[in-house]
Amino acid sequence: MLREKRESALKMGKFSSSYSTSDFVHFGVLLPFLLLSQLFFQLAWCGSIVKFLPGLEGPLPFVLETGYVGVGESEDVQAFYYFIESENNPKEDPLMLWLTGGPGCSAFSGLVIEIGPIAFKNEEYNGSLPNLVLRPHSWTKVSSIIFVDLPVSTGFTYATTEFATQRSDWIQVHQVHQFLRKWLIEHPNFLSTDVYIGGDSYSGITIPAIVQEISLGNEKGLQPWINLQGYLLGNPATTRRHENYRIPFAHGMGLISDELYRSLQKNCKGEYINVDTKNVLCSRNIETFNEVTSGLSMVNILDPSCDWLDTETSWRRSLLKKYPRKNFLNTHLKLPSLNCRSYAYFLCGYWANDDSVRSALHIRKV
């Protein structure tokens, strides 16, 4: 099996060498070369099928694969992913690579909170492992999805060197591009599948650049060729000044009155962040706006405003950071009410910290 995969990788251009077989006069020279190539293959990709998940009764009714793909300089970033095969027709349904925003939030958020086939049961935490349920409206009903933890130090993705811990939008763009081509080499059944790149929130900044780089790579003849069809964004940030658009959005959605909006426009002149403290009228209008919308979640205006996880210790960043179970409910975590969407985020911390979960997902100990 390993030999077949390696030969397939060679055909797709994964390995290259300036030597031909005839250059090796003795088999004793050829053998070490082959062994090194196999070792490189094993380090480059490691994926395993997950048949059961702790907290969910019975075997999984869909195909789940988890694993690592080495990206970056000398593959010093080990990118973790969850791959779920379409529950409909994986041979014909599209393939989507999904990135969660943040920046730097785990793809696990997309898997269990947003579009994946599993979710946490809406029940109060009782000290045991949180229970999972199947989500009937999962996007995996019509497409195969790769949820990938990038950039580095996101979710279960880790760096093997100090230099590789560096992060930037452009580094993420290059690493996602590299990840996808390597993943397709190891999953040749999807080489001709329609591919889409999807994400939410801060991914609105990076995904257009990722799509452009993939397209340029195709034009340059990089292998394997990616059958890129487009991209989609949910609740995306399209500029680093996105907070400035919350007031026009609130007015457009009928959350504030026409009178308040006109006053904000007049007194703030379209600048609603970093307001000059000397501009008393604008400051007062901003205070009124904040008071009027204080009970709503601006991420999803149909939700109430709920407590959130502390950004420095949130599970949404690095899942490799384990917190002691007895001390998890401390100042680092605000407990939301059960009717809040963020209650599921609270449950994620306990679920991802459980040793049986990490074993089931084949998480490396680093």
Would you kindly provide a written description of the structure presented here, covering whatever features stand out?
There is one protein chain. This protein is α/β, with parallel strands linked by helices and 366 residues long. Among the domains are: 44-235 and 354-360, Alpha/Beta hydrolase fold, catalytic domain (Rossmann fold), CATH 3.40.50.1820; 242-292, no CATH class. Helix content is 32%, strand content 14%. The protein has helices at 2-11, 27-44, 108-114, 169-186, 203-219, 246-252, 258-268, 280-292, 343-353, 355-360; strands at residues 45-50, 64-71, 77-84, 95-99, 118-120, 132-134, 144-148, 158-159, 195-200, 228-234. Helix 4 crosses helix 5 (203-219) and helix 7 (258-268) packs antiparallel against helix 8.
Separation of the first and last Cα atoms? 28 Å
**CATH class group of the domain at 44-235 and 354-360:** Alpha Beta
Strand runs, count:
10
Point out poorly predicted stretches: 1-44, 310-316, 323-332
| CATH fold-type name of the domain at 44-235 and 354-360 | Rossmann fold
| Biggest pleated sheet | 8 strands, mixed
Shape: globular
